[in-house]
Amino acid sequence: MSLRLAASAVFRREFQLFARRKSDWANPLMFFVIVCSLFPFAVGSETERLRGIGVGVIFVGALLAALLTLPRLFDEDARDGSLDLLLNSNEPLAMLVLARVAALSIGIGAPLILATPLFSLLYALPSDVALVLALAVALAVPTLLLVGAIAAALLVTARGGAILTAVLVLPLTIPTLIFGAGAASKVLYGESPFAELSLQAAYLLFALALSPLAASAALKISTD
Amino acid sequence: MALSLQLRDVQIERGGRSLFSPITATIGAGTLVYVRGANGAGKTSLLRALAGLAASSAGEIRWGVSGETASASVATSFVGHANAMNDALTVLENLSYAAALAGQAYQPVRIGHALDQLGVFKLALRRVGTLSQGQRKRAALARLLLRETPGSRAWLLDEPFVALDVDTQKLLEQLIANELRAGAIVLLSSHQSFSIASPQLTEIAL
To answer: What pTM did the predictor assign?
Structure first.
């Protein structure tokens, strides 16, 4: 009962912050827009070429945009002392971290997922590819944030931790990158994306099971 | 709901160097403990360790509630240098978040009452970012008053009088005295002088 209370308070607070500070979710979205709209200028606007790179560019753009939000996870709270409230709660820290990552995944992920089909148009991708790509992004963003939570927790008090977080997290997101982009490419060539999407979902579930525990342990160590 | 605290050979290390010689003490309900020490003596580290926010490097810290061993998260409320309030949220939002993490359902009346006791009721709907340092501190101290019943939690106060004006300092001294009478344990560090009417007073000199 009180776990539900605490977890929903963590979840709600995240959305209160999103409502107050629109830049929290608008900045990653703007970054995504910039990355996706710059590539056609650089590589040329032939339809075939755009279609060839579209899946990769959009997927990588969305991942990097989500990566930008990782410092937001714990850094601000460590500075203003709210992190102590989280650490000092009698509820399992892993569940509270999970609530927070879930809220962040929705707040950051939803704009990116909605923007994905739009950019698919820009890259001349057919609508079925756009849909699968949006689905792949929807699976990839929570995975990245879950894995990233571990690194963000480890580096919460480290100076210049943001770039180190990225260095630690990116290799671990390669499976979801391969499967996600692979799924959309399969559809592009008229095949079924089911296998890749399943593997991507499996990786998400794996992260879902392990990373809250790892992140909460890391948080305890780094704030000690 | 009698509170108790036992320290046995508690030591804390920072950077491979132990901050103070081992502390052993038994502290009962209604005791005011003044944690004294120069800058860097380890006052904040000790208070954080007592709050369960940091591990002690040696020894044992044991909180007791009604004779049973309890975790620090149940037995204590900690207010440190940082106010634990997000600038973008209102005072009420911040306090209800803190209350929920402490296991309490949303009770705006209780929060309002706590703010009222510190004279900042009218700030409840203001964003913390728009408040002065003293107002923030007062709002942060209101968190202490959100406990279930008076005296049910030990207060760990790290420099609570910083940024407070003279009247508010008196008010806080009064609130601490009341809480002690209700059976709480209050540990505080301060570089400012204060006077708190307390049945029992102990000093931990670091």
So the answer is: 0.91
